[in-house]
Amino acid sequence: MTTDILIRFLSAGLINVGGDDAKLKRLRETAADLAVALKKNPSKAAPFALIAFDPEAPANDPVIREVVDALQRRWATYVNTFSSTPIEVIRAILLDALVQAANDNDKVGLAFTTCARNTLPFMEAENERAIWTDVIDEVEQSVEARAEAEWATPASISVTAMTFSASEEIEVATTAPSINKRTLTKLVDAAVGPANAAGEATDGNQYWPNNGQNWALQFAPKLTGLLAGAFNEIAEGLKTSPIDLSRPLSELAKAVSEHVDNTLQSVSAATAGLQRRTNLIWWKEALYSPSARASYRTMPTYTAAALMAFDLHRQVPTFSPASVIAFLHEAVLSLPPLAAPEKRTLRDLLSEASSSSDLVALRHVAAELVPEPAGRSLLIGFLGHQANRPLPDGQSFRDHVGIPAATSLTIAEWAIWLFRELQAARAAQEGPRPKKRARRTS
Question: Whose CA, among 87, 236, 403, 434, lies 20 to 30 Å from 61?
């Protein structure tokens, strides 16, 4: 952050440490400890944020107790400074911790900002609104930049050249053939006549050339035989062993296969954003639920809106640009006009969603993403763990959710609320993925 959050709370008169820098240092150290805990366990981001937003957060909430324990480890005598549980101080510490963790991990940032967009409009925190607005906008810019990068379709695709080097050279070994001249001379003499120049018998052609036809009939086959034998001997000497090309060809095939795979992955990654947008347009126009295998038009309108939020969540990655929220808003407005009132209370919406047979898949996923509420929790925690069970009443509902059960939402607001919470819960469950950036300095 460009401005120290704790200093901004001090400047706005929201917390007071009596001008003691040592006390402020302990608050900062506590926030740093909680930021480390958040980065190790991003699932804490949503309950941390939901308490940080709420000036009326219950003092017995598990998050409040966790912060108090962390504060006491850094500042054993803090109780001498505050007459009761310092809710405002705890909220400021939580906000500082959330921002520190979000600076290192976009998934914490996503959980933080999506919770903020849902609940802050219903929180009574007017004297803090300027602080919240600046903080959320700054974290959201980083989250949005990552989402836009993941959805981008480049103008061109760059593919690296294929690399291949043979493991070793293939050697072909041959020997130079030679003919025994003396032996060849004897054979030629035997073909020419009955004796050689030295008068030695050749045991070959019994006729001399002056014997005409008889000599020729002996000479031709004998010369042919000796030449054939000489040529065969030369050919035999030129023979090579069979060359095994299986290894180099296998290596070449592997290199080609890897290059093709890398190329296809590059193309797939480059066009993923375009393909995703195309699929979403088809989904919106068809108004057909892939999870329920039915048209949204056949369902109660608010149930259909909740299912649309769930189906969109399953079709998009964890990080999605803000335009996806606008897309969901317009998709929900494609549903048949409402016969019921334009707005419904959170209690009514949760009750209907908890018992609807069309939302079984949504409730199952919600149970996997969010643990059973023990303190402040996302709304989908009730869907996942309170199906067919009575919801908390009155103040108990507010203590668990952060806003009253009588809070009313339009059909589009209901769908967007659920979609944001599903995205936040999935981001927290996927675990930390630190990003490379300069750390914040106080």
Answer: 434
